[in-house]
Amino acid sequence: MFHGLVLFCLFFSPLIGAEADEIVSAKEGDSFTLRTGFTERQGDHETEWRFGSSRTLLIKIKLGNVFSSSDTIFRDRLLLDRQTGDLTITNIKNEHTGVYELSIDLGQTEFQKKFIVTVYAPVPVPVITRYSPQCSSSSSSSSSSSGFKRVLLCSVVNVSHVTLSWYKGNSLLSSISESDFSISLSLPLEVEYQDINSYSCVVNNPVSTQITHLDIDQLCQTCSDCDNWSQKEL
């Protein structure tokens, strides 16, 4: 779908400047897998998975034995593929955002791989409200519609790292992006009287998209019609 082409790149400040071999985006409640790149274990070489700036040990494989982290945010969430060494983390939350490091002791060399993982909340459905109807001086009477315009407002609340956009058909009209945490976003759209085009409001982040289509028939047709619905949700 065309809305899926809306892409943006927003960064969590703790991860800025970090270098990675792979970048992973995941949705809260889902799982993600960090892959070693090997199809089978590299003998009995010691292997470690670590997390965060403190390099918390998640998994250690030594002499065929597996040691798992007792860290509370990872408890009952770690799944290790014993054949490849791949690590899967289940039922993820925002607190699982961060840098993950893999190291395998190959004897005279050490294989290392770093992943930057960002966990996003699923976006809410955007809400379109009818807001501040505007009439030209020639259309101030209830029987006149010349010059009449409607101003619509598309809003989402308690969001972070999202893009909010208005579309007319498949064409992007306007958009706004925000990386702050737990804010409310609104984007206005001015629609001409008797406009029969198809409009939709889209909110998305790297892992989810929600769309609200505008029902043009619900819009008022004259200034007097608008007296009773200003600020009313469509």
From TrEMBL:
Residues 133-212 form the Ig-like domain. The keyword Nucleotide-binding does not apply. Keywords: Signal. The keyword Ribosomal protein does not apply. PROSITE patterns: IG_LIKE. Residues 1-20 form the signal peptide. InterPro entries: Ig-like_dom (IPR007110), Ig-like_dom_sf (IPR036179), Ig-like_fold (IPR013783). PANTHER family: CD48 ANTIGEN-RELATED, LFA-3. This is Ig-like domain-containing protein.
